[in-house]
Amino acid sequence: MKLLLTKNYHLILGVVFLFLSLQIQLFAQILAITAPPNVILIVVDDLGWKDVSYHGSEIQTPTIDKLATEGVELNRFYVHPACSPTRSSLMTGKAALRLGFLNPLGKNNVKGLPLSEKIMPQYFKEKGYTTNLIGKWHLGRYKKEYWPNNRGFDHFYGYLTGGIGHYNHLHGGGLDWQRNGKTIREEGYSTHLLTNETIKIIQQKKSDKPLFIELCYAAPHLPNEAPETAIAPYQHLGNKNRQIHAAMVSEIDKGIQKIYQTLEQEGLLDNTIIWFMSDNGGLNFEGSPKEIREPIKKMTEIWGRPLPIAILDFFRDNFESGASDNSPFRGGKMTVYEGGVRVPSFIYAPKFLPTQKNNHQITVNDVLPTLATAIDCSTFNTTNVDGRSQWRALKKQSKPISSPFIVHAQFGEAYYKNQWKLRLSSSGEAELYQIEKDPTEINNVATQNPEVVTALIEELQAFPRGAVVNDPLWKVAIDPDIFGGAGENRSPYAGLEGAIRGPLHPIYYIVPLMLLAIIGLAWRRKKRRTKKVLFQKK
């Protein structure tokens, strides 16, 4: 009898343990279903359309390819032709023109992303997320109110300005590398450091807090710098700049692979949304605006390289060093042609979205509304933005609908609406393309559709434009935003408000001397003419 009771006891105990185990597993599954998804937004700097191997590039990007093909490949994803305008729309869901962003912000630009705007990390915080910005900000440095830690990010590691040396972390003569407002001096390649910081944040995640990370890589933005071991596989490419550019992209791909593996190891991958995008089209000389390209060609024909005036040579070197590939599209960074605004993008979230190649127009204005839906953010006001949520359409629960999209560059604007793309140059010349049928913008059909052109121009010109955020370009020209450079000549940027100046720049005395020379030549010519007239009268 005692033996029978013992056996029954063990049997009952086993059943109880089995029941509890099943309950725990069921509870874990319920938690997994109801737990808000982690979100990692990866923004790459100046990546061209054909800089990823799933678009036919010679650059090897196996991890990016895997995530794009196993996730949602966004085949018609649009941004602005330069970084600050794109990032302003990304944070707000609003058109850059409405916010007053026309160009990238200079390091001493007085204004930034308007403080009246509620931005992406603030919405995530309201949903209980920890919010992290790793990498580039470029939405305001001059006043502390604009800094990431004061705009909703719990943690910031990276830089405030538009671009840095990938090893020395300098911008325009100053060190721009910080963690939460404090300058840090550390050795290392920017891509590796930013990847390592992201991995650390993932590994330190609190179990009760969902995670939001905006990872903004510094590469492949200039300067062209990469580890020699990464450059070696691309020695067969003829152009040295292209070799380094390819290596920079490959290092990003390896970084994303490490992040993917960390999410997997930490058991977070299934409940994580990864959104990947470039902030604008890639930079290359032939794809740059003709208004810049042609003068550079003429000046180098006259003076050779380097150009005799520092600011002119700065622009020449930047445009000639760019080695992105935007083919088959026209143009590139700083233009409103497709090569400047249509960029690689995907969403990897197999638990939430079916695998697909999406050919519907989705823009940077749509990112915040879409993520707000994904995390069930009830405080997000969908009527106060220019973008719209694409989440239900991507889940195949509704038909896709595009909002009109406006992009601005220094020498023109473009307006996307339905099947049409209007390009309006700064001189008023109009081009019209049926962009789905003609993505390479070969057939300008403006003359065949004058009514469409007129209607689109009227809508474009009627669009509300905010007070301009950017300082005048001459201010940037006086103290150029050099990326990297040989040495430090001013205070580090972290924790300092106001203008951060270096030594007296040569342009301060070169420009007055040039003006004096021009005035002198004009006076001399006038004097000669006066003498000639007097001589003729005699």
Description:
A ten-stranded mixed β-sheet has the order 9-8-5-4-10-1-11-12-2-13, sandwiched between helices. Strands 15-16-17-18 form a four-stranded antiparallel β-sheet, covered by helices on one side. A two-stranded parallel sheet has the order 3-14. With 538 residues, the protein is of the alpha/beta class. The protein is built from 16 helices and 18 strands.
What's the arrangement of secondary structure elements?
Elements (H helix, E strand, L loop, with lengths): L1 H33 L3 E7 L17 H9 L1 E3 L2 E2 L4 H10 L3 H4 L20 H7 L3 E7 L18 E5 L10 E2 L2 E2 L2 E2 L2 E2 L6 H14 L7 E6 L11 H4 L8 H26 L6 E7 L11 H14 L6 H12 L16 H4 L3 E4 L7 E3 L3 E2 L3 H8 L16 H4 L10 E5 L2 E6 L2 E6 L4 E5 L15 H13 L10 H6 L28 H31 L1
Parallel strand pairs: 1-10, 1-11, 2-13, 3-14, 4-5, 4-10
Antiparallel strand pairs: 2-12, 5-8, 6-7, 8-9, 11-12, 15-16, 16-17, 17-18
Helix pairs in contact: 6-8
Low-confidence stretches: 24-32
Radius of gyration: 27 Å
Quickly give the structural class.
alpha/beta
Average pLDDT across residues?
Answer: 91
